[in-house]
Amino acid sequence: MGERDDWAELRERRLAEPGAAEAYDAARIAYELGKAVREMREQRGWTQAELAGLAGMTQSAVARFEAGGTVPTIPVLERLAHALEAELVVRLTPRTSAA
């Protein structure tokens, strides 16, 4: 068994543990939100410190957020959206069943 097979097996075992799938989903969402904020910031040519100042945050908080290291609250997302002159949209939609 190669290293890649070992990793895949370990990943499957970890995801089968209670709460692991939920934690994985939370990490994915945090990463996607951070990536979106970083891309918008970079499109404007801003540093993390500039965005932080506009959003009332510290540069290190922006860095952690952009790296997906924190799951943000709605108020933090609102401050970032306001600073980026973006609209924050939070939506719940029903899942489609595979019937």
Automatic annotation (TrEMBL):
Gene3D superfamilies: lambda repressor-like DNA-binding domains
Ranges annotated as spanning the membrane: none
UniProt keyword list: DNA-binding
InterPro entries documented for this protein: Cro/C1-type_HTH, Lambda_DNA-bd_dom_sf, TransReg_Diox_bact_type
HTH cro/C1-type domain mapped to chain residues: 37-91
Database matches in PANTHER family: HTH-TYPE TRANSCRIPTIONAL REGULATOR, METHYLPHOSPHONATE SYNTHASE
Protein name as catalogued: Ribosome-binding protein aMBF1 (Putative translation factor)
